[in-house]
Amino acid sequence: MSLSYDDTQRLRDLYKVCVESQHQMLGYPVATDYDYRDLWSFFQFSINNVGDWAEPSNYPMNTFEFEQDAVEYFCRLYHTTLDEAWGYVTNGGTEGNMYGCYLARERFPSGMVYFSQETHYSVMKIVRFLNIDYQVVASDSRGEMDYDALECLLKENIDKSPIIFANIGTTMLGAIDDLQQIQRRLEKVGFDREQYYIHADAACHGMIVPYLDNPPMFSFKHGIDSISVSGHKMLGSPIPCGMVLALKKHTDKLSHQIEYIAAPDKTLSGSRNGLTPLFLWKFIRSTSEQSKKQRVADCLQLAQEVVIKLNQHGISAWRHDNSPIVVFPKPSEQLWRKYHLAVAKNTAHIIIAGQTTANPNRLHQVLDELIEEHRTLTTEKCAGEPVMA
Ligand SMILES: Cc1ncc(COP(=O)(O)O)c(C=O)c1O
């Protein structure tokens, strides 16, 4: 197998783009401060985690042992145990969210999913795909679910079991929905604990919140049924991946013995990536809990410094206390495209991940340009204003 000269050149070009971009990502949640070179040798094998890691597989090249370690770690992080919960390494946050919604629909086949306006766009795809009824709940100006609006919708749909899709950090604004408020509203409307399901979408903040000194309530201890987190976001992985965990009382119902693989299965796909559990495992094993905590603290500290700097120059930037996402008014298209900043409506954001605290050069370059653009626009606006007589 060999490539033509032109095709080799195309790969070289791609390589150059990757080298130039790898540690410069500020608009999207991508941690790149990892070193997985000691795992490269596994790229030569057809590793496949088809089926359930907890059962022996007839396909020998799997990383089930490592996947189990990763599942155990996330169980600890989200206050549960392997006795109570089960989970697996997914292709990313979306698959975990789909799995949570699928379990919820199996539990309540004619239930109603409630998710806020600020919820990631993939959730709309998921509810359509799974053919579940849904209601979009209003969000407040900082991205958190409007609990009064939720209560109204719950009352209007009293005959349907609620499936709450709670955000543990929204995509654009980093808002965390308040589980206690949600549960209070459910109870107020008359639903007891056996009559609803709560899924937590912790795609980005699932690696942050557990390492805070006073974390908001978001885990199994606080009443969730399932949770999804991305592995390639704040943790860091060269291949998109994630973790989903759910109470066994929900997942056990899905398990079927599959003759072809001589094992039971309750995952969404057939073949599953066997390399990504190795990345998660390496991250978990090679860093102490204290250093993971410090990494999060450093990101939040730098995010706060960004807010202060932008504010000092008249840009109304802000962030939620528990989020590395700095939100500010949308700059010119030329600027947000140049630095690949994510934008929605009138806002843009910068996300601080591990590599940026290690080397903030690109961050400062972007901030300087944002400040300069803001200064120029403000000066032009003032110059254009009629002089009062
Ligand atoms: C809150 C939230 N949920 C879900 C997703 C989707 O996750 P993934 O891209 O890992 O599928 C994202 C991605 O940005 C997100 O921010």
UniProtKB/TrEMBL annotation:
<dbReference type="InterPro" id="IPR051151">
    <property type="entry name" value="Group_II_Decarboxylase"/>
</dbReference>
<keyword id="KW-0614">Plasmid</keyword>
<dbReference type="GO" id="GO:0004398">
    <property type="term" value="F:histidine decarboxylase activity"/>
</dbReference>
<dbReference type="InterPro" id="IPR002129">
    <property type="entry name" value="PyrdxlP-dep_de-COase"/>
</dbReference>
<dbReference type="GO" id="GO:0030170">
    <property type="term" value="F:pyridoxal phosphate binding"/>
</dbReference>
<dbReference type="Pfam" id="PF00282">
    <property type="entry name" value="Pyridoxal_deC"/>
</dbReference>
<feature type="modified residue" description="N6-(pyridoxal phosphate)lysine">
    <location>
        <position position="233"/>
    </location>
</feature>
<comment type="similarity">
    <text>Belongs to the group II decarboxylase family.</text>
</comment>
<dbReference type="InterPro" id="IPR015424">
    <property type="entry name" value="PyrdxlP-dep_Trfase"/>
</dbReference>
<keyword id="KW-0456">Lyase</keyword>
<keyword id="KW-0663">Pyridoxal phosphate</keyword>
<protein>
    <submittedName>
        <fullName>Histidine decarboxylase</fullName>
        <ecNumber>4.1.1.22</ecNumber>
    </submittedName>
</protein>
<dbReference type="InterPro" id="IPR015421">
    <property type="entry name" value="PyrdxlP-dep_Trfase_major"/>
</dbReference>
<dbReference type="GO" id="GO:0019752">
    <property type="term" value="P:carboxylic acid metabolic process"/>
</dbReference>
<keyword id="KW-0210">Decarboxylase</keyword>
